[in-house]
């Protein structure tokens, strides 16, 4: 018997239906990849602690001011900076106890002593500067007046970082919890009997102080020139190499171009490096810069 075409097609679909269902049942749906949301983010470095460039010179803020001591020229700034934002976001107050430094951490407390008249004062770092050769600190108007710097504009000073008092050295008071207080009421300490020796609990040994970093030691170079052509930099570097000096040619971008600066190794001592920089200026290199690498 011949079935109509429609019936044949329906019969064929009915016979193939179990195979289609078995194939669909065995097909696996790919799972979505697991994304962990518990990963800890690294703490971001504050903007005031990141390297920055002023007039082609890169300054690297130091992480700690412990043991810091420096001598150099102090200047002061008032108008038109009064009321403007400082590097850490504060509003500059020329009558406040603040100062600017190139590399010290923000909020560092400094003792500033005028080496010419012996006056001293305390300031807090909240700004960057001064970006003038040999100047190490910019004082507010009030602090500069205390030191006798306003009339002359600059003065020879020494700055010393004041170490903060550690929290562990502050006195502490033990407070019992409610359950402990109840026990304490039933077990009060008895007074000492005559002839009985009273012993105190051993005190923890004081923590040894970490040695202060020596900021006078490092690798100090004096920049004696900056050239647009590498050939000119090599010629100048060769002159110092013939004198027995270690010389480095460093490429750096400035003013939309690549410059090649010649760095001559001065000393591992900051004091000796400053002396060598002064000798280079006397020898005719007026635009020398003292750098640490």
Kindly summarize this structure in a few lines.
It contains five helices and twelve strands. By secondary structure, the chain is of the alpha+beta class.
What does this 3D model show about the protein?
- The protein has helices at 5-26, 141-147, 178-186, 230-242, 270-282, and strands at 52-54, 57-59, 69-76, 98-100, 109-114, 120-127, 135-139, 154-161, 217-227, 247-254, 257-269, 289-292.
- Helix content is 22%, strand content 27%.
- Mean pLDDT is 75; it is low at 29-39 and 164-187.
- Strands 3-7-4-6-5-8 form a six-stranded mixed beta barrel. A four-stranded antiparallel beta sheet has the order 10-11-9-12. Strands 1-2 form a two-stranded antiparallel ribbon.
- The protein is globular.
- It contains five helices and twelve strands.
- Strand 5 and strand 6 (120-127) form a beta hairpin.
- With 293 residues, it is an alpha+beta fold.
């Amino acid at each position: 018997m011949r079935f109509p075409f429609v019936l044949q097609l329906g019969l064929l679909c009915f016979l193939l239906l179990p195979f289609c269902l078995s194939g669909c049942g065995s097909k696996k749906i790919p799972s979505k990849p697991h994304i962990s949301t518990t990963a800890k983010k690294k703490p971001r470095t504050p903007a005031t602690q990141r390297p920055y460039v002023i007039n082609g010179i890169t300054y690297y803020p130091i992480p700690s001011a412990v043991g810091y001591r420096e001598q150099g020229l102090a200047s002061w700034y008032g108008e038109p900076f009064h009321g403007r934002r400082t590097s850490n976001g504060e509003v500059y107050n020329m009558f406040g106890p603040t100062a600017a430094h190139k590399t010290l951490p923000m909020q560092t407390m400094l003792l500033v002593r005028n080496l010419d008249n012996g006056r001293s004062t305390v300031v807090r770092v909240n700004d960057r500067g001064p970006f003038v050769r040999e100047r190490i600190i910019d004082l507010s108007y009030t602090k500069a007046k205390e030191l006798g710097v306003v009339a002359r504009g600059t003065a020879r000073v020494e700055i010393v970082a004041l170490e903060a008092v550690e929290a562990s050295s502050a006195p502490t008071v033990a407070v019992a919890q409610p359950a402990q207080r109840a026990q304490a009421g039933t077990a009060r300490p008895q007074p000492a009997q005559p002839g009985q020796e009273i012993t105190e609990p051993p005190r923890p040994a004081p923590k040894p102080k970490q040695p202060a970093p020596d900021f006078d030691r490092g690798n100090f170079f004096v920049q004696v020139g900056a050239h647009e052509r590498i050939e000119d930099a090599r010629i100048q570097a060769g002159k110092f190499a013939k004198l027995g000096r270690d010389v480095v040619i460093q490429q750096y971008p400035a003013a939309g171009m690549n410059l090649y600066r010649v760095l001559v190794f001065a000393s591992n001592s900051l004091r000796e490096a400053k002396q060598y920089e002064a000798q280079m200026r006397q020898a005719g290199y007026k635009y020398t810069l003292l750098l640490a690498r």
